[in-house]
Every structure is written in structure tokens, then in C-alpha cells.
Amino acid sequence: MTGTPRRVLGVIGGSGIEGILGSGTPRSHRVSTPWGAPSGPIEEGEVGGVKVLFLARHGPGHTIPPHRVNYRANVDALRALGAEAIVTVSSVGSLRAELAPGTFVLPDQFVDFTKGRPTTFFDGGKVYHVSLADPFCPDIGRRAVGVGQELGTPFAERKTYVCVEGPRFSTRAESTFFRGFADIIGMTLVPEVTLARERALCYSCLAMVTDFDVWADKPVETREIIETMHSNSEKMARVLTRLLPRLAETPTCACGHALDDAGV
After folding, report:
1. 37-to-49, 63, 124 alpha-carbon distances in Å
2. What is the model's pLDDT at position 217?
3. Catalytic choice (112, 123, 213, 217)
4. pLDDT score of 15
5. In the predicted model, is pLDDT for residue 251 greater than 60?
6. Tell me: the pLDDT tens digits for 80-89?
7. Is 139 a catalytic residue?
8. What are the domain boundaries of the chain?
9. Is position 112 annotated as part of the catalytic site?
10. Is residue 122 within a helix (H) or strand (E), and if so which, with residue range?
11. CA–CA distances in Å: residue 1 to residues 41, 54, 107, 260
12. For residue 147, what are the contacts with CB-CB under 8 A and spacing of at least 6?
């Protein structure tokens, strides 16, 4: 992918951003993969003249909990349809006082506290050990930061995302523990980010803070999370509408070479 413009982009998110494909009727794809079916049909449309594939991570109507999402099928289905980069939108909790609900965050590192999820495409046969020293695409991140600044919705940068199994929220002890090494907490980043790297795809997570995690002495309430998420979805849709056409330019990253020296 490095050296040539991106032609197809994948977006994984929720119900608040599917409107980026416009008011027309998008083309719908039902894809089968060696890993089973993805979360739902993949909608194909255009944003600023660029082909975009949209997938609702939790399925139509948000019926799939985070620990049951078929992440391998989701990533592979987007790749099979031609996606060369994946941009995801995720709701997260805050582990920092300065990252208040409504803040947009661009993580650059993650810590994996998931437990029972398949995390790789390479379960047998040829073995690959991909590097995740820098897990997110720097090219997408740079362009996202610029768009956020232009629109007055800046991203907090250089933050660490701790991914937990879910679907439950943290205990107070866990939340205090996570604050020792992370800034935001969520349930969906892993293994999406790992699988994208194994398929040599550019990948970035645009995170929206919906609440303070329970370290802040106030139990997390799903109702408040949903309200904040809805209030921010319009802002995030504007970011994506401006960002995605810019990603069709020639990337400056090396994501497409992730497997070059990873094989054993």
C-alpha cells in the first residue's frame, strides 16, 4: 500500500456514524469468511468521492456484546472487499480527570486485559510474529489530528487504551489499578488492532470519552454513556466526512509491510 493512493477505506463503528455514507441507498454486502460471518452486512458508499465500507461492530441494533464480536471475520471481510485501511470509532471511559466526557482521544498505545478472544489469524501453519511496538497507523493519526483541529474538536494525543473483556464495567480496585498505566478504558480495541496489523492494513482508533470510569467515585451508568455518545456522534461524523477523503492520498506509513520480516 505504501507508495500508492488508498482506494478503499473501511470504517467500523456504531449507530451514530452510519450516516457518513450519505442519504442514498448504499450497496449492501453479505460476506462469508474462513472465520465465519462478520457482525452484519457491510454497507458500501462514497465519502468525498472515496469508496467507503461501513460495518456496525455490534451488529444491527447493537445486539452483539464486545466479547462475542467476531473480530477476525470483521477485519477479513473488509479486507476481502478491498479495504486498505480501517478507521474505527469507539466509546471509552476516562481514567484521567483531564479527559472529561465528550473528549475525543487518539490512542497511540494499548494494554490488553482481554481473556478469551481469538487474537490472531495465524493459529497454525506458517508462523508470523508481527510487531506492535507502534500499533496504530501514524499516517491516519496525523491526518486525524489536523482535521480535529480544523473543526474545533481536537484529539487528545499520546494516550494509552486498556482493553478489558467486558461486558461488565470495572470494580473500583480494577479502575484504580488501570490508572497506573492507562488513560482510557474500553472493550473493543483488541483484537481488532492486532488483526489489522496481521493483514498489513493501516488502522486507527478514534475514541470518544463517554464517562469517567469508577475510580472517580461515581458508578458508571449505561444511560449516561448512551446520552454522551449520541451527543458526540454528530461531531465524529463531521470528522470522518472530512478525514476519509484525505486518506485516499498516498500514505506515508509502513503498515503495508508489516509481514515482510515477521515470518518464521
Report:
1. 28, 15, 21
2. 79
3. 213
4. 58
5. yes
6. 999 999 999 9
7. no
8. 8-257
9. no
10. none
11. 26, 20, 23, 13
12. 239, 242, 243, 246
pLDDT at 100: 92
- What does the pLDDT look like over 197-222, one tens digit per residue? 999 999 999 999 989 999 987 767 77
Q: What is the pLDDT of residue 1?
A: 43
pTM: 0.94
Distance separating alpha carbons of residues 114 and 214, to the nearest angstrom: 19
3-state secondary structure of 232: helix
Q: Is residue 191 reached through a cis peptide bond, with omega within 30 degrees of 0 on the bond before it? A: yes
Residue 93 corresponds to which cell in the numbers above?
Answer: 471511559
Query: Among 76, 112, 211, 260, which one carries the catalytic annotation?
Result: 211
- Cα–Cα distance measured from residue 235 to residue 240, given in angstroms and rounded to the nearest whole number: 9
- Decide if 139 contacts 88 (C-beta within 8 A): no
CATH of domain 8-257: 3.40.50.1580
Do residues 106 and 157 lie in contact, with contact meaning Cβ atoms separated by under 8 Å? yes
Sequence letter at residue 243: L
